[in-house]
Amino acid sequence: GTVRRNDLSDFKRVQANGKIAMKLDEDSGDRLVSVRVCNESQHVLLSTKGGKCIRFPATAVREFKSRASAGVRGVKMDKSNEVVSMDILDGTELTDIDIRAKYLKIPADMRSGISSLMVQKDAVDDEDKKQLIEVEIQDYMDQIESELDSDTIRIWARHEQFIMTITENGFGKRTSAYEYRVTNRGGSGIVNIITSERNGAVVASYQIEDSDQLLLITTNGQLIRCPVHDVRIAGRNTQGVTIFRTAKGERVISVARIEDSESEEAEEIEENRD
Fold it and tell me: Given Cys at both, which of 5, 31, 171, 240 links 61, Cβ 3.0 to 4.6 Å?
């Protein structure tokens, strides 16, 4: 649960035998979980196998001048828990609690659809394509009943991100990043997903796009690939839905995100389990 932040120039020259990035407590079995590039406007999301997570500004971790220290506490855990994922989220100035509550009352599939279309619209230069996307966005807007005006909904949708969380028994869900409040580093965190006997421990938790696909691999060597948009959006304090039906004694051990597979047909690939 410790973290550190170094200037990228500290790793400008890396020898063939490697370079120390962070001091680890070998006696406790500590190991490195993740390394990501970030800037000072972004946030860090740490997720634990016990279903907790914490979100704090990258600037909450001071910039270290050396590479051989252990860093500072990112999340407080008991000895039976451990960090399984670290991701970088966009920082946002959309912090009004009342507006956030009203925005989250809008059906999740509509919010996700508008958010995805807003990203697509920003990415294209062709005006005709922009107009077609705008028509789709307006179709969603016409179906929404909300206390918020159209411009406010568009602004919040443009900045909305979704966190995908997967457990070892093959369950998972998407949750709006707006539900993960920004706190000080070093705390115990908040609930990310319920790690019941049905779900098992968390394997991975990170930001995902609606156009992405997931690749899950189990201890038995089974593999499944599925579109992200097939996974239900749910609140933090829920269990999620079945993504992979694991056999008795089988666990999901690795999850990979395949970015923007728009050029391929979204298909699910599963080996014969008989």
Answer: 5
Phi, psi of 174, rounded to the nearest 5 degrees: -110, 140
Nearest to residue 2, comparing CAs of 38, 42, 39, 30? 30
SS3 270: strand
DSSP string, 158-200: HH--EEEEEETTSEEEEEEGGGS----TTS--EESS---TTT-
What is the distance between the alpha carbons of residues 42 and 96, in angstroms, rounded to a whole number?
Answer: 18
- The maximal CA–CA distance of the chain, rounded, in angstroms, is 61
Token pair, residue 40, equals 């000072």
Q: Are 255 and 216 in contact (CB under 8 A)?
A: yes
Residue 10 φ/ψ region, left for φ over 0, alpha for ψ in the -120 to 50 degree band, beta for the rest: alpha
For 92, the token pair is 């946002």
Residue 174: its pLDDT value, please? 95
Look at residue 263 in the predicted model and tell me its pLDDT: 43
Write out residues in the chain with pLDDT < 50, as ranges. 261-274
Q: What is the C-alpha to C-alpha distance for residues 206 and 166, in angstroms, rounded to an integer?
A: 9
Q: How far apart are CA 237 and CA 252, in angstroms?
A: 21
- Single-letter amino acid, residue 85: S
Q: What pLDDT score was predicted for residue 133? A: 94
DSSP states along 73-127: ESS---TT--EEEEEEE---S---HHHHHHHHTS-HHHHHHHHHHHHHHHH---H
Q: What are phi and psi of 255, to 5 degrees?
A: -130, 130
Residue 140 is encoded by which pair of tokens?
Answer: 């969603």
Query: Among candidates 274, 212, 222, which has minimal Cα distance to 253?
Result: 222
The residues, any chain, with a CB within 8 Å of residue 119's CB and separated by 6 or more, are 158, 209
